[in-house]
């Protein structure tokens, strides 16, 4: 299974957050949503989760 990456540096933010989360898609989605709510004061909505899911990228292969 391809691992996914959520990188806060690629999202607009006043805090200039540098957190990167890597893992299986549902793990990353859950952790990134919790981070967006607790750190960036977003509301946990289906729209937020879809926005995060759309920003996920495949993790580069080792050695790539």
Automatic annotation (TrEMBL):
Pfam annotation, one family: DUF1059
Domain of life: Bacteria
Protein name, entry field: DUF1059 domain-containing protein
Organism, scientific name: Streptomyces ehimensis
């Amino acid at each position: 299974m391809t691992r996914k990456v959520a990188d806060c540096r690629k999202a607009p933010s006043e805090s200039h957050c540098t957190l990167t989360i890597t893992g299986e898609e549902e793990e990353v989605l859950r952790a990134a949503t919790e981070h967006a709510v607790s750190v960036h004061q977003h509301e946990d909505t289906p729209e937020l989760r879809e926005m995060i899911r759309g920003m996920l990228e495949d993790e580069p292969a080792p050695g790539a």
